[in-house]
Amino acid sequence: MVRYSTPAYRDSEDDHQGGHQLKILSPLPRVPWDLPPLPSGAGAGVSPPSVRQCHRDPQDVRHEAATCRPTRSQKRRSVADAKEYTQRPVEEERERSLSSSQGSRPPRLSVSRHEAPPYLVGNPFILSGYRRCITLREACQGLFYQHNSWLDTWTSVFSWVHSHVLLFVASYVYGVFRRDWLSAIVFASFYLHVAWIHAPASIVCHLVGNAGISQHVYELCLELDYLGIFIASVILAFTQAVFVYPWWGTLLNVLLAMGLTAYLVTHIRQVVLCHIGRLRMLLEIGSLYQLPLWFQAYQDCNSPSIPSSLPPSLLCACGMTGSLVVGGLTYALHFPERFAPGKFDVWWNSHALMHVWINVAMLSEFLFLLHMFLRRS
């Protein structure tokens, strides 16, 4: 922009008498004129501004400033425009990253370990596949592209499907709901603890909590996941004990599980944020629903009426305890990604393998219930 300045002009007496002569006085302070450059020859015949036009009265300036104050609606509109201006670069960056994505893995939503939020980096051997979602819709879209919680989510979905398959076998093949009310309650509770308590909480935790929306959402979903584990453990303490213990033994086992669950719920924030604390908590509460299986296996091994040296109750107890121990050690030792960092970021890392072993434990628990139901019938 070219700035023009003009000397000060004043009308002469000849000008008042009808003439056109102007006297040039000593130059006043230079006045900037923010005007575009004029072409050569333009502006001929245009009289320069007078002194009154260049130097305005301060009282007139104050009056115009008072009358031109912005209203409340104009202020709100300016604040909204400022917010839109600050958010526009973020939206443009997101649109640009999504438009440049290749395949089914948007680079904006799947980042490396150094770009991920610090609260998501709990496993030092997972180097990529972290997410940085902003909305719930972006988090739910994680079902359809690969990231380091993708297989964890689908193994939890498999647990939900697995529970429905076991319910179909129990109801239509063996008719457990047509025998007596106690068997119906036991198998319905077993189905409930997997299909509508444990599996949905796990799906929400891995799909939404690990999406990188915020640390508050992550901790809330993690607490919801472990709260589902606590409630499911109380239900398992009832279902595994009802065919083994007398009524008072079953009641005592359930009360112990409820007391331990109440203690863990009051300290859930300190427990779930510690990697070793989670494993210790699961072992403590898991022992309450494993004791009935080992008690029945001990009785069957010492019973002369059972000729087999490996009764089904012993196989079920070994299958459930062994799968939980192997899954816990796999999760605690970060196997196998510890020996090949970056190779198991998406497929078959320690967390996904732990979910597989949990499904094996669930199958062993169901087989034990079915075996005790057939013996009772």
Automatic annotation (TrEMBL):
<feature type="compositionally biased region" description="Basic and acidic residues">
    <location>
        <begin position="54"/>
        <end position="66"/>
    </location>
</feature>
<keyword id="KW-1133">Transmembrane helix</keyword>
<feature type="compositionally biased region" description="Basic and acidic residues">
    <location>
        <begin position="78"/>
        <end position="97"/>
    </location>
</feature>
<feature type="transmembrane region" description="Helical">
    <location>
        <begin position="226"/>
        <end position="248"/>
    </location>
</feature>
<feature type="binding site">
    <location>
        <position position="351"/>
    </location>
    <ligand>
        <name>Zn(2+)</name>
    </ligand>
</feature>
<dbReference type="Pfam" id="PF03006">
    <property type="entry name" value="HlyIII"/>
</dbReference>
<feature type="binding site">
    <location>
        <position position="206"/>
    </location>
    <ligand>
        <name>Zn(2+)</name>
    </ligand>
</feature>
<feature type="transmembrane region" description="Helical">
    <location>
        <begin position="254"/>
        <end position="272"/>
    </location>
</feature>
<keyword id="KW-0862">Zinc</keyword>
<keyword id="KW-0675">Receptor</keyword>
<feature type="region of interest" description="Disordered">
    <location>
        <begin position="1"/>
        <end position="112"/>
    </location>
</feature>
<feature type="binding site">
    <location>
        <position position="355"/>
    </location>
    <ligand>
        <name>Zn(2+)</name>
    </ligand>
</feature>
<keyword id="KW-0472">Membrane</keyword>
<keyword id="KW-0479">Metal-binding</keyword>
<dbReference type="GO" id="GO:0038023">
    <property type="term" value="F:signaling receptor activity"/>
</dbReference>
<feature type="transmembrane region" description="Helical">
    <location>
        <begin position="181"/>
        <end position="205"/>
    </location>
</feature>
<keyword id="KW-0812">Transmembrane</keyword>
<dbReference type="GO" id="GO:0016020">
    <property type="term" value="C:membrane"/>
</dbReference>
<dbReference type="GO" id="GO:0046872">
    <property type="term" value="F:metal ion binding"/>
</dbReference>
<feature type="compositionally biased region" description="Low complexity">
    <location>
        <begin position="98"/>
        <end position="110"/>
    </location>
</feature>
<dbReference type="InterPro" id="IPR004254">
    <property type="entry name" value="AdipoR/HlyIII-related"/>
</dbReference>
<feature type="transmembrane region" description="Helical">
    <location>
        <begin position="314"/>
        <end position="334"/>
    </location>
</feature>
<feature type="transmembrane region" description="Helical">
    <location>
        <begin position="354"/>
        <end position="374"/>
    </location>
</feature>
<feature type="transmembrane region" description="Helical">
    <location>
        <begin position="157"/>
        <end position="175"/>
    </location>
</feature>
<protein>
    <submittedName>
        <fullName>Progestin and adipoq receptor family member 4</fullName>
    </submittedName>
</protein>
